Amino acid sequence: MGNTGVPARKIAALSLAFLLASCVRLIPGGSVSGPVTPPVPAPTAESALALGVRQGPAIAALRLGQSDAVSALASFRESCPRVTVRADGSGLTRPEDWRQACVAAASWAPATAPQFFTTFFEAARVGDGSAFATGYYEPEIAGSRIRRPGYDVPIYGLPTDLVRANPGDAQPLENGRMPLGRYDRGGRFVPYFDRAEIEQGALMGRGLEIGWAADPVEVFFLQVQGSGRLRAPDGSVLRIGYAGQNGRPYTGIGGLMRERGLIGSGPGQYPGSMQGIIQYIRDHPAEGAALMRENRSWVFFRELTGDGPLGALNVPVRPLSSVAADPRFVPLGAPVWLDLDRREAGGLWIAQDTGGAIKGANRFDTFWGAGEQARLTAGGMSGRGSALIFLPKGKLKRLGAQ
């Protein structure tokens, strides 16, 4: 994806909590206008192994649902080419640990899907197992591959002048990497154009447009989500996904609104949900436009092919089956069991994604697919309860878990 060093995938699982946070994807979840609980603070431990892992209950005792297990088995099978070769940042597994289950998954009959998980896995509890889950979806907005009347908001591909600074041209970031920006005509490294500058035409005329949308507000939230669909008047669909970001810090506009008393449960306030935030912007267009520009971050897209948006494992994420997690605490590709006070988000999921706001042990972001119902379900999801991670059998003994 050019020479920016930005991962060629969406910013996964940018949950509604992310949007509402004062400093930190929108990926909404739960009730249409229900309150969103702030995320659980990340623990100081840097991995599941450092935090501590305990033996969970027998998987058979969880009584996995048939349809739940069938969809989870399908997603687990799709993850196998990746989990059997990639390093596990949680410290819980090795690539070879997954091979027996993956070989069996290739031909396992869906009719006995629950037995697959009881046969090859054991449940583990990371830390105290207390879980917090939000939700995300793949938005679909009015758009077109070509510019036409009423479709004037550009969707930009990744610019070639968005680069990382050469050593010595800027201060390294806290993680040691050089910052993203551009070199001006004088050869100086400077920050890349921010949201306001891009909206005012900084990138126009460079042939970067991969599509055009009808509504700038929808484009803003499409960027927060990191992927989505553009549906043209003729019914054709262009799928787009995250290609890169301008290097500017993300500012959650929900957090700004909360600080300013614009959202809440009081008179004249808007609900603390994605729908409430959008309604405020619709009701106050000038103030809303200025508010969105306070988030100086801008996301660039690429056209996607295939039947689903790609997660962090570079395999499609599936509705009601894929969940985003912090890979320091959950092996990507692992089955995850959620027991939450939001029943619709409970059950068996497969960890296939990550996200900027999905940090810490037992912090999850559930994927609900595309369309209006997915948007409504994801638009206020905030579930608390407990989580179990399914590990290949025998690994807990190796880890010394009790």
Automatic annotation (TrEMBL):
One of its GO terms (biological process) is peptidoglycan turnover. It comes from the Bacteria. GO terms for cellular component: outer membrane. It holds the Pfam family MltA. Keywords: Cell wall biogenesis/degradation, Lyase. The keyword Lyase applies. One of its GO terms (molecular function) is peptidoglycan lytic transglycosylase activity. The keyword Lyase applies. SMART domains: MltA. It catalyses: Exolytic cleavage of the (1->4)-beta-glycosidic linkage between N-acetylmuramic acid (MurNAc) and N-acetylglucosamine (GlcNAc) residues in peptidoglycan, from either the reducing or the non-reducing ends of the peptidoglycan chains, with concomitant formation of a 1,6-anhydrobond in the MurNAc residue. Residues 140-302 form the Lytic transglycosylase MltA domain. Its EC number is 4.2.2.n1. This is peptidoglycan lytic exotransglycosylase. It comes from Novosphingobium pentaromativorans US6-1.
